[in-house]
Amino acid sequence: MTAATPVSIGRNFGWLHHANGDRGVVMCAAMGFEALCAHQSWRLLADNLAAAGLPTLRFDYPGAGDSLDDANDPMPYDSWRRSINEATAWMRETLGVQEIVLIGFRIGATLAAEAGGASHLVQLAPVVKGSVYLRELRILSRMHDGRESGPRERGVSASAINLEGFTTKASLLSAI
Q1: Can you give the pTM of this predicted structure?
Q2: How far apart, in whole angstroms, are the C-alpha atoms of residue 102 and residue 116?
Q3: Which pLDDT does position 3 carry in this prediction?
Q4: Which of these, 151, 169, 150, lies nearest to 159 by C-alpha position?
Q5: What pLDDT does residue 156 have?
Q6: Pairing of strands 166-168, 161-163
Q7: Rounded distance, CA 120 to CA 41, Å?
Q8: What's the CA angle centered on 145, arms 140 and 147, to 5 degrees?
Q9: 17 C-beta neighbours (distance < 10 Å), count
């Protein structure tokens, strides 16, 4: 395991996995419950990439994880996409990397493709159709709601999806 340093990129929190290469990696995570389930594997992937000589950045989207939230942001999806551009610019300016590889998982893969600005793109289980993805989230939510244990959020509107305590609001659902 390589040493990772906490970094701040605008309003976003991230972890930089150090290496001396001139090709950097920006990792674009999944959303909510999917991101939580993949967290350890995501961190190990970042460690392995850094060990192979690729400085690697994992970061949280605005309003997710340890990043600051703008409760008045009407389009969080657009903010997430912009945060990917900010992360790639930060890698170039701060570390002086010449090339950027975006690696995205699930909705992060879709965001990475839409954000662009990289030399290479790796998509892991990308969301290719928003309606199918949202149907998957709703089904998972119903399956988990049937259990006796697990976090619940009271007052979640019918137009939102609550999956194990991660609520996806209507504005984000419509953007997806």
Answers
A1: 0.82
A2: 8
A3: 78
A4: 169
A5: 43
A6: antiparallel
A7: 21
A8: 110
A9: 25
For residue 155, the model assigns a pLDDT of 44
- Amino acid 77: pLDDT: 78
**Centroid of chain to Cα 4:** 18
CA–CA distance, 176 with 173 (Å, rounded to integer): 5
Name the nearest CA neighbour of 110 among 29, 17, 9.
29
Q: What is the mean pLDDT of each run of 10 residues along the chain (176 residues)?
A: 85 94 95 86 97 96 72 74 95 96 95 94 92 80 63 52 63 68
Beta strands 120-124 and 161-163 are unpaired
The pLDDT score that the predictor gives to residue 124 is: 95
DSSP per-residue string spanning the chain:
---EEEEEETTEEEEEE----SEEEEEE---HHHHHHHHHHHHHHHHHHHHTT--EEEEPPTTSTTS---TT-S-HHHHHHHHHHHHHHHIIIII--SEEEEEEETHHHHHHHHH---SEEEEES----HHHHHHHHHHHHHHHHTSSSS---TT--TTSEEETTEEE-HHHHHH-
- Residue 168, pLDDT score: 64
